[in-house]
Amino acid sequence: MSKLYILRGIPGSGKSTYGKKIVDNAIDAGLSAIKFEADDFFMKDGKYDWNPKLAHVAHKWCQNSVRKALDVYDVVVVANTTLALSDINVYIKIANEANADFEVVAIHGNHKNVHNVPEETLEKMRAKMVDYPGETVINTDK
User: Fold this and answer.
1) DSSP 130
2) Residue 65 near residue 71 (C-beta atoms within 8 A)
3) In a 3-state reduction of DSSP, which class is residue 6?
4) Distances (CA, A) of 112 to 47, 89, 109
5) Under 8 Å CB-to-CB from 50, ≥6 apart: which residues?
6) Helix %, strand %, coil % for the chain, to 5?
7) How confident is the model over 27-69, as pLDDT tens digits?
């Protein structure tokens, strides 16, 4: 049975780094593992080419990638901002449809965000992030 890790947090919280650790640990344990982020959609020739008009397309691409990967990999990680319950529920539904276990993980950390999101925007995002009942909370500042 596959397992989906749903990593969520504001930009610069440490989602990508923590997700990479999950993948690396799974591979070291002899499991197959992969990580997806909606940001991957915007990588072109090794450069990040953000287009806000395509954000919804990027998230659909990410959801479809996760859906397909759960049929192939032992461990699948998705690392997106995912502030609202409705965003989390999309991935829980995908896990349930694939008969996969899942874990929701809130990542809290204050690292330099690679997309240079202004602090004012980060504060607004922090305020919008709701708790998910039963989620694991990880502080990456430690």
Assistant:
1) P
2) no
3) strand
4) 18, 28, 10
5) 42, 115
6) 40, 25, 35
7) 999 999 999 999 999 888 888 888 889 999 999 999 999 999 9
